[in-house]
Amino acid sequence: xxxxxxxxxxxxxxxxxxxxxxxxGNRLPVRTRDVVTDSLxxxxxxxxxxxxxxxxxxxxxxxxxxxxxxxxxxxxxxxxGIVGSLLGLESRVEAFGGWLQGRLAGGASTAERHRFIEGxxxxxxxxxxxxxxxxxxxxxxxxxxxxxxxxxxxxxxFAAIAFAASFGWGVAASAITIVTxxxxxxxxxxxxxxxxxxxxxxxxxxxxxxxxxxxALRLLRVREIPVxxxxxxxxxxxxxVALVGAIH
Length: 248
What we know:
Blueprint: H1 5-25, H2 30-52, H3 58-64, H4 68-87, H5 89-104, H6 110-128, H7 131-142, H8 147-167, H9 170-192, H10 198-219, H11 227-230, H12 233-247
C-alpha cells in the first residue's frame, strides 16, 4: 500500500464531512447546533478518559516503575506547557486560522471570524492529538498498512459533519493541519523505522488523553484552556520515559 494513502483518505473524509455539516448547519437553529457541540464535547471527554487510562499501562510501569507514570505525565504537561506558552503556540495557531479565514472569506463579520478560528483550532486539535494519529501515521510510514488511519478517517468524517454544523468552514481548513501533522509522522516512520516502544507510546497516549480533556472543556464552554500551548508535551513524554527508564 502506498505510504500516505491513509492521510489522503482522512483529508477527503474531513472535507466531505465539512461540506455536509455546513449545508446542514445553515438549516439548523443555534440551539440545535449548540446541542451538537455539547454532544461532541461529551464524546471527546469519553475518548480522552479512555486514552488517559494508558497511564496505567503495564509496559510503562515495568519500564519506569509503578510510581513514575503519573509523574511523567505531570512533568510532560508542565514542561510542554511552559515551552508551548513561551513559543506562543496557541496564539500562532489562532493567527494562522485568522489568516486562513481572511484569505477565504475576507468580508466576514467579527463573529463569523471568531467562529471560523474556533472551528479550525478545535478541529485541528481533535483530529491531530489522538493516539490513532501517532500510531496510524507511523505505521503507515513503516509499511504496516493504513487500517488505523482508515478507522480514524471514518471517525473524523462523522465528527467533521457535527463540527461544521456548529463552526462552519473552519473545520474544513483543519485538513491543512492533518496533512502537516500526519504527513510528518508518516515521513518519520519512513525514515526512522519503529521509534516508539510500547512504554513510550503509552506515555504519549496518556498525555494526549489529557490534552483532549482540555479540548472537551472548550467544547463544553467550561474553560478556554490553551491546548495548543500544551502540544509540546507529546514530545516531552517519551523523552521523560527514556530518562526515567535509564535511571530505573
